[in-house]
Amino acid sequence: MKIVRKSKKKLIIVIIVVLLVVSCIFFAFYRTILMASVSNNFTSNSKSINTTNHNNSTENTKPVSSGISSSKEPNQSTPKVANDVIPAAPLGNFVSNHHPNMSGSPSPNREVSTCTTTPGATCLIQFTENNNIKSLNQQTTDANGNTSWAWTLQDAGLTVGKWKITAIANNGDKTSVSSDAMYLEISE
User: Fold this and answer.
1) Quick check: 110 and 102 in contact, CB under 8 A?
2) Which of 39, 122, 124, 134 has a Cα-to-Cα distance from 49 of 20 to 30 A?
3) Integer Cα distance of 94 and 115 in angstroms
4) Is residue 113 a contact partner of residue 132, using CB atoms and an 8 Å limit?
5) Which residues contact 31 (CB under 8 A, 6 or more apart)?
6) 150 in helix, strand or coil?
7) How far is the C-alpha of 59 from the C-alpha of 82, rounded, in Å?
8) 127, 162, 133, 167: which is closest to 147 by C-alpha?
9) Predicted confidence band of residue 78 (pLDDT cuts 50, 70, 90)
10) Cβ-proximal residues to 93 (8 Å cutoff; 6+ apart), any chain
């Protein structure tokens, strides 16, 4: 009886391992197919943050470039995703510190944001407090689907308060949205 039980346990473990290996191979194959559908490289040279203010249904956009850097290098080629592809839901560390303060002491006012989605799609990080909406500039993801921003609270136009964080991936008229489980809570 004990031998039969041990054999069944071993068989179950072997089946689980095989299923895990097959799943990994499937996802690697799926990603390869997805990347193969990406074509028509183009150049992105984005180095700024667009701050959008949506108070009382009035939209003001001003580029901010002081102290901002992005993951893109000038003339780095990024793929263009086919127009009919819905971008993958954005993933990443949308902010590096959920409890910064404006003075930068004791908690830094500098942030790093990352977004991963479908290669060649665009991504932006948006912050909402009541009717006030600010966002980091929209950037095109690289061949691995990644982009990032290095910025300060002041550069993004954020103020003291509790801001909802949302990442938005776009491909033409196709959009995928993810929200951070935590708020960006900015203190003095």
Assistant:
1) no
2) 39
3) 7
4) no
5) none
6) strand
7) 30
8) 167
9) low
10) 112, 113, 114
| Pair 107, 86: CB distance under 8 Å | no
Q: Which of 88, 102, 89, 166 is nearest to 134 (CA)?
A: 166
Q: How far apart are CA 29 and CA 132, in angstroms?
A: 42
**Confidence band (pLDDT; 50, 70, 90) for 117?**
very high
Compute how many other C-beta atoms are within 10 angstroms of the C-beta atom of residue 34. Answer: 15
In angstroms, the CA 127 to CA 145 distance is: 22
Residue type, 143: A
Q: Is 19 helix (H, G, I), strand (E, B) or coil?
A: helix
Structural domains in the chain, CATH included, are 37-186 (2.60.40)
Q: Which amino acid is at 74?
A: P
pTM of the model: 0.61
CA atoms within 13 A on the CB side of 14: 6
Q: Name residue 176's beta-bridge partners.
A: 169
Integer Cα distance of 157 and 106 in angstroms: 20
Task: Spell out a b/e string for 101-123, using b for 16 or more CB atoms within 10 Å of the CB, else e.
Answer: bbeeeeeebbbebbbbbbbbbbb
User: What are 42's strand-pairing partners?
Assistant: 78
Give the pLDDT score at 184. 97
